[in-house]
Specification:
The protein is an all-alpha fold. It has three helices and no strands.
Protein backbone atom coordinates (compact mmCIF):
# COMPACT_ATOMS: atom_id res chain seq x y z
CA UNK A 1 0.00 0.00 0.00
CA UNK A 2 2.68 2.49 0.99
CA UNK A 3 4.77 1.61 -2.07
CA UNK A 4 1.82 2.19 -4.39
CA UNK A 5 1.23 5.63 -2.90
CA UNK A 6 4.93 6.51 -3.01
CA UNK A 7 5.17 5.48 -6.66
CA UNK A 8 2.47 7.89 -7.80
CA UNK A 9 3.48 11.38 -8.94
CA UNK A 10 1.24 13.72 -6.95
CA UNK A 11 1.41 16.19 -4.10
CA UNK A 12 -1.49 17.31 -1.94
CA UNK A 13 -1.28 20.64 -0.14
CA UNK A 14 2.36 20.90 -1.17
CA UNK A 15 3.28 17.68 0.64
CA UNK A 16 4.98 15.01 -1.46
CA UNK A 17 4.04 11.36 -1.71
CA UNK A 18 6.72 10.30 0.78
CA UNK A 19 4.66 11.65 3.66
CA UNK A 20 1.35 10.33 2.30
CA UNK A 21 2.90 6.88 1.81
CA UNK A 22 3.75 6.71 5.51
CA UNK A 23 0.19 7.64 6.46
CA UNK A 24 -1.26 5.16 3.96
CA UNK A 25 0.93 2.38 5.36
CA UNK A 26 -0.13 3.17 8.92
CA UNK A 27 -3.79 3.24 7.93
CA UNK A 28 -3.49 -0.08 6.10
CA UNK A 29 -1.82 -1.64 9.15
CA UNK A 30 -4.56 -0.37 11.44
CA UNK A 31 -7.22 -1.88 9.19
CA UNK A 32 -5.49 -5.18 8.44
CA UNK A 33 -3.99 -5.89 11.88
CA UNK A 34 -6.56 -4.46 14.27
CA UNK A 35 -6.84 -7.59 16.42
CA UNK A 36 -3.05 -7.89 16.80
CA UNK A 37 -2.78 -4.23 17.82
CA UNK A 38 -5.56 -4.61 20.39
CA UNK A 39 -3.83 -7.67 21.83
CA UNK A 40 -0.52 -5.79 22.07
CA UNK A 41 -1.79 -2.53 23.56
CA UNK A 42 -3.15 -2.47 27.12
CA UNK A 43 -6.90 -1.98 27.49
CA UNK A 44 -6.54 1.37 29.26
CA UNK A 45 -4.88 3.02 26.26
CA UNK A 46 -1.60 3.53 24.52
CA UNK A 47 -0.28 6.40 26.62
CA UNK A 48 -0.65 4.78 30.02
CA UNK A 49 2.45 3.28 31.61
Amino acid sequence: MAFAVAATPFALAGITTDFWAILAGLAASLVAERSELRAHWPEKGIGRL
